[in-house]
Amino acid sequence: MNVDVLKSFKNELPEHVSLVAVSKTKPISDIQLAYDAGHRVFGENRAFELEEKYAQLPNDISWHMVGHLQRNKVKSIAPFVDFIQSADSPRIIKEINKEARKNDRTINILLQIKIAAEDSKYGWDFKELTEYIESGPLSNYHNIQVSGVMGMATFTDDTEQVRSEFKKLKRYYDRLKSLYFSANKFKDISMGMSGDYKIAIEEGSNMIRIGSILFGERV
Ligand SMILES: *Cc1c(COP(=O)(O)O)cnc(C)c1O
Questions:
Q1: Residue nearest to atom 4 of ligand 1 (CA)
Q2: What separation in Å is there between the alpha carbon of 213 and the centre of ligand 1?
Q3: pLDDT tens for each residue of 164-199
Q4: Which pLDDT value is given to residue 118?
Q5: SS3 string of 162-181?
Q6: Which ligand 1 atom is the nearest neighbour of the CA of 195?
């Protein structure tokens, strides 16, 4: 972690774009350096690693789970996680609400929508998502706040493909907001990683998830 890189990166971001520093595989000491430089929002993609890091770091960090989550892992992060960005199925949303309620908390979730061409990426099919929402379960879930959407573009050098996938996510977000959610609470469009965040911001992202630029390449 090079703190100067973090500071200049943050200085150059438009004001409406928030930064989730994705610290997966990186040591506590790197996160502490970023914390000491004033950063408070970190993302991890594995529940076990998130839990370990939470236990060893200051408790005013806003932790974001950004990776696919199995149902039996929700319990371990529910006491402290701020955002689960990978809410990608009816079962996981139900479980997040259940565990949040046990902890007497509200957990923010982002609906992860599939926008990439690759099969391997998790996320909702948009049509299945609207059918799910229309079938009504969310109105019974009082311990989650549906705060927006998350998506990952295809890993490719074809910037026009990446751009069109981000445009698609922005359109999905706009449609969901106008049809189903209250405008002031459904506010986050989490898209953009180290390789594609500039395009994502041009296409309407207001939350980027950055790992390698800040922490160096992962091995
Ligand atoms: C690892 C990861 C990131 C950050 O990736 P970089 O390319 O290192 O910036 C962002 N989002 C998710 C879901 C990730 O798993």
A1: 211
A2: 10
A3: 999 999 999 999 999 999 889 999 999 999 999 999
A4: 79
A5: HHHHHHHHHHHHHHHHHHCC
A6: 7
Residue 110 in contact with residue 122, Cβ under 8 Å?
no
Q: How far is CA 170 from CA 78, 91, 150, 163, in A?
A: 28, 25, 10, 11
Sites in the chain below the pLDDT cut of 50: none
Please give the pLDDT value at position 119: 72
Task: Give me Rg for the CA atoms of the chain.
Answer: 17
DSSP single-letter state for residue 157: S
Q: Which one, of 66, 70, 93, lies nearest residue 190 by Cα?
A: 66
Q: Is 24 in the pocket of ligand 1 (CB under 6 A)?
A: yes
Element (DSSP H or E) covering residue 7:
helix 3-12
Q: Can you give the pTM of this predicted structure?
A: 0.97
Question: What is the predicted pLDDT for the residue at 121?
Answer: 65
DSSP state of 154: -
Cα separation values, 141 from 31, 108, 126, 138, Å: 33, 12, 21, 5
User: How far is residue 192 CA from its own chain's centroid?
Assistant: 10
Q: Which H or E element spans position 19? A: strand 18-22
